[in-house]
Amino acid sequence: MRIAFGFLAGLVFGLGLVISGMSDPAKVLNFLDIAGTWDPSLAFVMGGATVTAFLGYRLVWRRPAPAIDARFDLPTNRRIDGRLVGGAALFGIGWGIGGFCPGPAWTALPLFAPGTLVFLPAMLAGLWLGAHGRSLSLPTLKGSVR
Amino acid sequence: METLTTTPFTPWASLFGGVLIGLSAVMVMGLFGRIAGIAGITNGFIGAVLPTPGAPGDRDWRVAFLVGLVAAPLALMLAGGTVQQTVPVSLGGMAVAGLLVGLGTALGGGCTSGHGVCGLARLSPRSAVAVGTFMAAGIATVFVLRHVLGA
């Protein structure tokens, strides 16, 4: 049940990425290239996704608990600090170089472009290193960060 | 660096795809009570393979979600659709980019979906700061690579 629904949610997410064009690094880089070959399409992706999630979240939060899990588990960390801004900045630089954020890196995998096959393992390594760095420098926060 | 490819403006397809992404985020919240952040979901996958501090415990649906992501372009191609994709060719650049995306999303606690779609939908100030920062960094990076250093 959990696995079937997890797969279905991933499939819908992936179809959304591919249909919207978000899965194409050329389109992402053109979205970020305001001074050049600008393609504003991705603003529609973000807009459509965020408004849908905003409305849908409010519907599902009326229930006391999610359908197949014990409780809603939302991020409790509200701190705006150097780690948040620094991490987001590093992510943005990588996004601007490669044109991939984590979701599109996965949907690109079955097309086997050489750039993807280099990017994805490097991203996994970065996530793993980042998780270790996070736990090393802030041991007291353990458990409170997602 | 990558070649300058112009891409067509696709507001309707992008809006429709965006709504699908939003629906998936609502499914994950309604079913599992979680944020559909791909960096966090990927962290669950890594935690299933290697010891990873802070990796989420509920790996079953997370791994299944990633399989669904990978299956999506294949399903679209089987249905007769085409998957448009131009990936940068500089392998060194892609290695650096991947490392930065992984490190940055781990430290910043989210990516385009976790902070972007889900965080903004929750009206989280923390996510709004993250989105403003990674958008600005992405725009600045592309500007420098394409217009200062030259493509």
UniProtKB/TrEMBL annotation, chain A:
<keyword id="KW-0812">Transmembrane</keyword>
<dbReference type="InterPro" id="IPR046513">
    <property type="entry name" value="DUF6691"/>
</dbReference>
<feature type="transmembrane region" description="Helical">
    <location>
        <begin position="111"/>
        <end position="131"/>
    </location>
</feature>
<protein>
    <submittedName>
        <fullName>Putative transporter component</fullName>
    </submittedName>
</protein>
<feature type="transmembrane region" description="Helical">
    <location>
        <begin position="82"/>
        <end position="105"/>
    </location>
</feature>
<feature type="transmembrane region" description="Helical">
    <location>
        <begin position="41"/>
        <end position="61"/>
    </location>
</feature>
<dbReference type="Pfam" id="PF20398">
    <property type="entry name" value="DUF6691"/>
</dbReference>
<keyword id="KW-0472">Membrane</keyword>
<keyword id="KW-1133">Transmembrane helix</keyword>
TrEMBL record, chain B:
<keyword id="KW-0472">Membrane</keyword>
<dbReference type="GO" id="GO:0005886">
    <property type="term" value="C:plasma membrane"/>
</dbReference>
<feature type="transmembrane region" description="Helical">
    <location>
        <begin position="63"/>
        <end position="83"/>
    </location>
</feature>
<keyword id="KW-0813">Transport</keyword>
<dbReference type="Pfam" id="PF04143">
    <property type="entry name" value="Sulf_transp"/>
</dbReference>
<keyword id="KW-0997">Cell inner membrane</keyword>
<feature type="transmembrane region" description="Helical">
    <location>
        <begin position="89"/>
        <end position="107"/>
    </location>
</feature>
<keyword id="KW-1003">Cell membrane</keyword>
<feature type="transmembrane region" description="Helical">
    <location>
        <begin position="12"/>
        <end position="32"/>
    </location>
</feature>
<comment type="similarity">
    <text>Belongs to the TsuA/YedE (TC 9.B.102) family.</text>
</comment>
<keyword id="KW-1133">Transmembrane helix</keyword>
<dbReference type="InterPro" id="IPR007272">
    <property type="entry name" value="Sulf_transp_TsuA/YedE"/>
</dbReference>
<protein>
    <submittedName>
        <fullName>Putative transporter component</fullName>
    </submittedName>
</protein>
<feature type="transmembrane region" description="Helical">
    <location>
        <begin position="128"/>
        <end position="149"/>
    </location>
</feature>
<keyword id="KW-0812">Transmembrane</keyword>
